[in-house]
Design brief:
Layout (H helix, E strand, L loop, with lengths): L5 E6 L3 E6 L5 E8 L5 E3 L7 E2 L5 E3 L4 E5 L2 E3 L3 H5 L7 E4 L12 H10 L2 E10 L28 E12 L2 E11 L4 H5 L11 H9 L18 H26 L4 E3 L1 E6 L3 H18 L1
Parallel strand pairs: 4-9, 10-13, 11-14
Antiparallel strand pairs: 1-10, 2-3, 3-9, 4-5, 6-7, 7-8, 11-12
């Protein structure tokens, strides 16, 4: 069965998103419609710069954009927004974005602005055969799917073979046939605070009014019962999906959507960004 295009959803008007950055300072970002697919950054030149893995770096928990001395920190959740709306330029004066530990601050603003419309189509993009990146503890691969269902062509699997927590250690994984409708569920997921040893200090700072983001992270609290812990793990896995989608969003050529399977076990942003860089280079050679 032939592979078919799927609808593209584009940003139709400029929106401004206001909040507080990681350190509690006032922060804002403008999203400006761009005539082409992809996510771009206004770096103060004549033309905005397309975000690709080549101008991204990773820390343990965040992706950062850097180009010609201009840096945007923790850009990952905003990159993942490409799975909901495509074709926009990011403009920020300070390089610090509104932060809530998820992509909900951006998705919610786009929803409220009613600034998304179906416009044009995206073409399928996949790799000709399975391939693997990493060591024995992390695998990531993408390959062409035989399915022609445009909303189920991307399958994501994330997991850990030994996640330590208050009740011991466990092997966990989550598999999803991803479609655009899944993105709100992923966008609202928080990740683990790091390091976890900062939880008492974070809670104290929150009670003192000095730190507004304590509840924007997941903490492995010894008081949690096993049932509550399962909910924490589920949210953490959805946040892993968010990070993986951010890396893939930076790798895709403008005008395309991915087909195939991506698996990240014991993964990290650094490994997934390396995977995205390889995919990006393959995409340039084929488009």
């Amino acid at each position: 069965m032939p592979l078919i295009p799927r609808p593209a959803y584009r940003l139709t008007k400029e929106i401004t998103i206001v909040g507080h950055d990681l350190f509690g300072r006032r922060a804002s970002v403008e999203l400006i419609p761009h005539e082409l697919s992809g996510i771009y950054v206004d770096v103060g030149k004549d033309e905005p710069v397309l975000v690709t893995p080549e101008n991204l770096t990773s820390s343990r928990c965040s992706l950062h954009f850097t180009c010609d001395g201009f840096k945007i920190r923790n850009i990952g959740p905003l990159l993942a927004l490409r799975w909901w709306v495509d074709g926009f330029t990011i403009r920020t004066a300070t390089g610090w974005l509104p932060f809530d530990g998820t992509a909900q601050v951006f998705l919610g603003a786009v929803h409220q602005s009613a600034a998304v419309a179906e416009e044009g189509t995206l073409l399928p993009f996949g790799l000709p055969q399975p391939w693997c990146l990493g060591e024995a503890t992390v695998h990531a691969w993408i390959f062409i799917s035989e399915s022609a269902e445009s909303d189920t062509d991307l399958k994501l699997t994330v997991g850990y073979d030994r996640l330590r927590h208050a009740h011991g250690a466990m092997a966990i994984s989550h598999e999803r046939k991803f479609s655009r409708d899944d993105f709100p569920d992923i966008a609202c997921a928080r990740g683990f605070g790091y390091p976890q040893s900062l939880r008492p200090l974070s809670a104290l700072a929150a009670r003192s009014g000095l730190w507004r983001h304590h509840h924007h992270f997941l903490w492995t609290d010894a008081q949690r019962d096993a049932t509550t812990w399962e909910l924490v793990v589920d949210e953490a896995l959805r946040h892993r999906e968010l990070n993986l989608l951010a890396c893939l969003a930076s790798a895709l050529p403008p005008g395309y959507f991915p087909i195939g399977t991506v698996t990240s076990l014991n993964g990290s942003l650094a490994k997934e960004l390396n995977m995205a860089a390889l995919l990006h280079r393959m995409g340039r050679a084929r488009t």
